[in-house]
Amino acid sequence: MSEFLYLMGEIDWRVRPLVCAIKRWAQAVGLTNPTPGRWISNFSLTMLTIFYLQIREVLPSLSTLITLAGKVR
């Protein structure tokens, strides 16, 4: 999973700063908490952000990435 997150950050330089800003915002408004429990996790926020960027066609979908990876061979 970490390779996927790294790849998404490499595809568009705006991904990492956006994810960082969303994490900080979520912490400031109390959506996340460092202790386990009934909180949304930073990982979940990151995946939701990537999904949103895929829907808006800023980032390619996973199926597109798989197709492109098959063509490299």
Give your account of this protein's structure:
The chain is built from 4 helices and no strands. By secondary structure, the chain is mostly helical. It has one domain (2-72). The mean pLDDT is 89.
Q: Which structural class matches the secondary elements?
A: mainly alpha
Total helical segments: 4
**Order of secondary-structure elements:** HHHH
- The rough form would be described as elongated
Largest beta-sheet characterization: none
Nearest-angstrom radius of gyration? Answer: 14 Å
- Fraction of helical residues: 55-70%
Number of strands: 0
Number of folding domains? 1
The average pLDDT is 89
Strand fraction = under 5%
Cα distance spanning the termini: 22 Å
Low-confidence spans: none
Distinctive features:
single chain, 73 residues, mainly alpha, 4 helices, 67% helix, elongated
Compact description:
It is built from four helices and no strands.
In terms of topology, how is this protein built?
Layout: H1 2-11, H2 15-28, H3 42-55, H4 62-72
Helix pairs in contact: 2-3
